[in-house]
Amino acid sequence: MKLAAARKSFLPLPSLPKSGSIAGVRHLSGELDVTHKPLPPPTTTSAAVTEIVSVLKTTDHNDWNSNSKLVEFLHTPPSPTSLLKITRQLGSTEKGLHFLEFFKTNSSGLSANPSSLSFTFQAILEQAMRDEQEADVPSKLFELFCFAKEGKIPLSINAATLLIRCFGRAKMLEESVSVYKELDPDSRNTNVVNLLLDCLLRGGNIDRGFKVLDKMLKRDSGVPPNKSTMDIVLSALWKRIWVERRMSVEEICELLVRFFEHGVFLDDVWFTKLITKFCRSGKCDKAWDLLHDMLRLGGGVEASSYNALLSGLGRERDFQRMNLLMNEMKEKEVKPNVVTFGILINHLCKCYRVDEALQVFEKMGGSEPDGVLVKPDRVLYNTLIDGLCKVGKQEEGFKLMEKMRMENGYEPNTVTYNCLIDGFCKAGEIETSLELFDQMKKNGVVPNVITLNILLNGMCKLGRVSSGMGLFAEMQEKGLKGNAVTYTILITSFCSVNNIDRAMTLFNEMTENGCSPDAKLYCSLILGLCQARRMDDASCIASKAKEAGFGLDVICYNALIGGLCRKNKIDEVHQTLKDMEESGIKPDHYTYNTLISYFSEKGQFTAVRRVMKRMKDDGYLPNVVTYGALIHAYCLAGNLDEAMKIFQNMSSATNVPPNAVVYNILIDTLCKSDKVEDAISLLDEMKDKGVRPNTKTYNALFKGLRERNWVEKAFEIMDQMTENACNPDYITMEILTQWLPTIGETEKLRSFVEGYEVSTSTA
């Protein structure tokens, strides 16, 4: 580029934002870099500099060659510092370029000090950064750079720094690299390489950036890394590479060890962040190795970094290495703080090792031989109280709360009371929980929604749903609104007692109050509505759950299919099965047994066989429920032979032992078919196979024996029933009172009711 062309293209440049303000420019390049070659002392006084600047500003540049003061000024070559000061004060890039040409053309001492042009050009760059009307500063600076390169004007290190920084912010990565290459290799230092590295990594050129880094990390590197290098690389790792180009934890650790080998170590903030990140990614082993690599190579580790690793080990329940780490802290004279002990105690309590947690707590008092005097805080007390309550030691938790208040002056807060109230609720001591709740309010501790939920859950589990609703209403009046958990507890409780109307009222209230139901609540409602046979409402809630983004699980689908089968809505059953399949939920044993029971009851045995085939194809073998449904269906259809065939197949071929339900179905059918002897034979088989008869078994036999008027056998069965401690129900008494008194056996009936043997005497 010709100088005249350069002048023509340079219009006034706009001022930069704060990051590139005049103060920022002076900070970057206003002073000579300390690594630059030492310059000769200035030969021009400040007054002389001011005079020369005045002449340059008031005289047309075409007349500078004829100005005696300027000629005299150049007669003795000015120092680079003087030229830097003069060019800075000219006020525009254009005048700076004119001065550079004038100086280059007329000075005879350039060969003596080549830095003169470098510092003059540096001042021109600074002025270009300050000009207020230029629209595209980076582009104009690149034009200036090209002009200097063509004119073989060497760059000062500050000029190179200014250009690399500006190009880097503009994402002009190739231009930044060009500037770096143009810089004299002897002038390159760690700071300028850091700047190039930062530009490349921020600009997304990760591969090139890491090539630069690799050269810095070599053992014989002329520009070794420093703390700034590490900060640049870690910032890139944290903000960019872990998102766009994921480096493995192993690669990151290898990179950091190379820094350690150069004596550059992680500060406490970065080390804590990295260890936390590694541990949460399941890489506690690598975090452990990195900490010990840093110690081995001479770095120091603070308590917060140890705490981060302790937390990770605690989540993995690796108490052995937690103890090793605590011992290392003592050896390295790193004093554990209250957070250190809090982490250890918290994880011990989560694993229900509360006795060990209490031992650690005692060491904090400094009384133990290996103890450390650290004052526990309220958080640590709450952790221990919660741990004690979770293992059923709520009384000890209460005593610890009193100790916290008396010995350390910490008043219990909401968390403290919540832990204790929860402990007593889980122990079934709801009255004690309510007393603590009253004490909490008297002491000015404000209950929160967690307090409310704990108490509601405790009350509802004990069947005190009405009391729970009263408490909820009281808290609402005081401004404490329930959340999704609150409504879930209440709605689930009302569903469990089949009060579906109240559950639906609460559900509507919940949505009106802006609380979003969760998957658990939708499931509870669907199950309750299906149990109450309100299938239209159940389907509506299922649709709302899907609209809210919650997929139904197999339990909900089974409830819907079962409810629709009971309502004989087979078309909707097929649609539900289709929805289930499209949602990626596979039918299970319960699903298939429900369908088999339905089709069996309807006598649709072709459909039964089709469902059983698919059931087997999906890897589910028929179980006792499946066979029971089939046997019941054939019995209802009057096909007793087929029912018995399936029963015999159960016992021999499929290795599925019949249960009392299957025996009862067959015994009842046999008795109704006047095959009482076969029914009694099945009763004997039940005893042989260890299947306990129940009241339904005996009732079916009593009906058959009554039809035969087989009273002696009835007395034997009555004695068996008494011997097996199987209490008669109203059906038993109805059968026997309609039969025995009519044949004069009222006393036998009375003895049976009173639990005495009745078969010793004849009828």
From TrEMBL:
<protein>
    <recommendedName>
        <fullName>Pentatricopeptide repeat-containing protein At3g61520, mitochondrial-like</fullName>
    </recommendedName>
</protein>
<feature type="repeat" description="PPR">
    <location>
        <begin position="302"/>
        <end position="336"/>
    </location>
</feature>
<feature type="repeat" description="PPR">
    <location>
        <begin position="588"/>
        <end position="622"/>
    </location>
</feature>
<dbReference type="Pfam" id="PF01535">
    <property type="entry name" value="PPR"/>
</dbReference>
<feature type="repeat" description="PPR">
    <location>
        <begin position="413"/>
        <end position="447"/>
    </location>
</feature>
<feature type="repeat" description="PPR">
    <location>
        <begin position="483"/>
        <end position="517"/>
    </location>
</feature>
<dbReference type="InterPro" id="IPR002885">
    <property type="entry name" value="PPR_rpt"/>
</dbReference>
<feature type="repeat" description="PPR">
    <location>
        <begin position="553"/>
        <end position="587"/>
    </location>
</feature>
<feature type="repeat" description="PPR">
    <location>
        <begin position="377"/>
        <end position="412"/>
    </location>
</feature>
<dbReference type="Pfam" id="PF13041">
    <property type="entry name" value="PPR_2"/>
</dbReference>
<feature type="repeat" description="PPR">
    <location>
        <begin position="337"/>
        <end position="367"/>
    </location>
</feature>
<feature type="repeat" description="PPR">
    <location>
        <begin position="267"/>
        <end position="301"/>
    </location>
</feature>
<feature type="repeat" description="PPR">
    <location>
        <begin position="659"/>
        <end position="693"/>
    </location>
</feature>
<dbReference type="InterPro" id="IPR011990">
    <property type="entry name" value="TPR-like_helical_dom_sf"/>
</dbReference>
<feature type="repeat" description="PPR">
    <location>
        <begin position="694"/>
        <end position="728"/>
    </location>
</feature>
<comment type="similarity">
    <text>Belongs to the PPR family. P subfamily.</text>
</comment>
<feature type="repeat" description="PPR">
    <location>
        <begin position="623"/>
        <end position="657"/>
    </location>
</feature>
<feature type="repeat" description="PPR">
    <location>
        <begin position="448"/>
        <end position="482"/>
    </location>
</feature>
<keyword id="KW-0677">Repeat</keyword>
<dbReference type="Pfam" id="PF12854">
    <property type="entry name" value="PPR_1"/>
</dbReference>
